[in-house]
Amino acid sequence: MDRTEKREFVATLAGVFAETSFVLVAQNKGMTVAEVSELRRRMRGAGATYKVAKNRLAGLALDGTRFQGIQPLLKGPTALAWSKDPVAVAKTAVEFAKTNDKFVILGGALGTQTLALDGVKALAELPSLETLRAQLVGLIQTPAMRIAGVLQAPAGQLARVFGAYAKKDEAEAA
């Protein structure tokens, strides 16, 4: 990389750090191209980005951001992952780490809070943003459905009573 490319890379990473809420730091010592491609595919599927970064350039991009706490983790061959949904990144990384010993999660940062491996694993156990939205919609719909059922019940009972009177009148008239 020449100086211009390095500046662009630092500026791009700094922009990412300004927009995202969670950054994961991992080591990928000895991973094959196929394994890295599989990890990238999984991350993309979860709406996340995975990038191998030079530690010095990543450190420069971290300066002045809320993620400065992860700078000590930038040692050795490191990679960064981020997404707008922090749970998606954590889940994908933890699941991949279970099947691949060469991929080691070092930690991450959720806003200004620096997380160790245990913190990332705890974050991975939370339901995803989509699941939480679905649960919230379900909670909102349930009372409305109950109210509609309660309101419909008396009307149905009245209709049955009127129907019975109508049949009784027809029977008496015949």
Describe this structure in words.
InterPro entries: Ribosomal_uL10 (IPR001790), Ribosomal_uL10-like_sf (IPR043141), Ribosomal_uL10_bac (IPR022973), Ribosomal_uL10_bac_type (IPR047865). This is Large ribosomal subunit protein uL10. Belongs to the universal ribosomal protein uL10 family. 61% of the residues lie in helices and 16% in strands. It has two domains: 3-126, Alpha-Beta Plaits; 127-173. The protein is α+β, with helices and mostly antiparallel strands. It has helices at 3-19, 33-45, 55-62, 86-99, 117-125, 129-173, and strands at residues 22-28, 49-52, 78-83, 103-110, 113-115. The protein has six helices and five strands; from the N terminus they run αβαβαβαββαα. Helix 1 (3-19) crosses helix 3 (55-62) and helix 4 (86-99) crosses helix 5 (117-125). The N and C termini lie far apart (100 Å). The chain has a five-stranded antiparallel β-sheet.
Defining traits:
2 domains, 174 residues, 6 helices, five-stranded antiparallel β-sheet, alpha+beta
Strand content: 15-25%
Shape: elongated
Instruction: Please report the total strand number as a whole number.
Output: 5
Please indicate the count of domains: 2
GO cellular component, one term: ribosome
Function: Forms part of the ribosomal stalk, playing a central role in the interaction of the ribosome with GTP-bound translation factors.
Protein name: Large ribosomal subunit protein uL10
Family: Belongs to the universal ribosomal protein uL10 family.
